[in-house]
Amino acid sequence: MPRAALLIVALSVSPLLTLAGQGWAALAPGDRVRLTTTSSALPFVGTVVTADSDSVRIRPQDTAVLTGRRTSVSISRRSVRELEVGVIGPSRTGTGALIGLGMGAVVGALYGVSDASTCRGFCFFDPGAEAAIGAVFFGGIGAGLGALIGLAEGSERWQRVPLSHAHVALGTHGAGLAVSFAF
Fold first, then answer.
1. Those residues with Cβ within 8 angstroms of residue 10's Cβ, 6 or more apart along the chain or in another chain
2. Any idea what DSSP says for residue 178?
3. Exposed, middle or buried, 109 (CB in 10 Å: 0-12/13-18/19+)?
4. Pairing of strands 156-161, 80-88
5. What would the pLDDT profile of 111-130 be if each residue is shown by its tens digit?
6. Where are the alpha helices (DSSP H) in the chain?
């Protein structure tokens, strides 16, 4: 009878264990993470090197710049207060190009009008034509610069990962059954 009771309790508790570990199971080597520990108020940003049942090893994003070498830090899972994973969305190249085109066209048109208004005597173009030429020229330059900035900008957003430090222990206690839950 005790073995049957132990089996029933184990089967009813196993879904809790599966749910409890899903947040950490989502971590894979190469993932960008941002985490806050119980000992620090500032978030720690880096790339996951390895993750196991009790710790996660992370390579901080600024390590190579500051020290000249690539080091990693091991952080206990129990000390993590908040965990977020970086999710890369589509680039903003098109948006940057459109913003650059609009800004460049406005600046070019204003420059063309102001340049044409200072013309005395023989002028190649009237103010309207100079505004159009300036808008096309500076609009093209603005679109190119905006596309480059949008490409470099990217669109990383942080997705929060639920943390759970659930622990379930099953065992026998004399002739009875012992179950322990810790969250």
1. 170
2. E
3. buried
4. antiparallel
5. 888 877 777 777 777 888 88
6. 2-25, 63-67, 93-117, 127-153
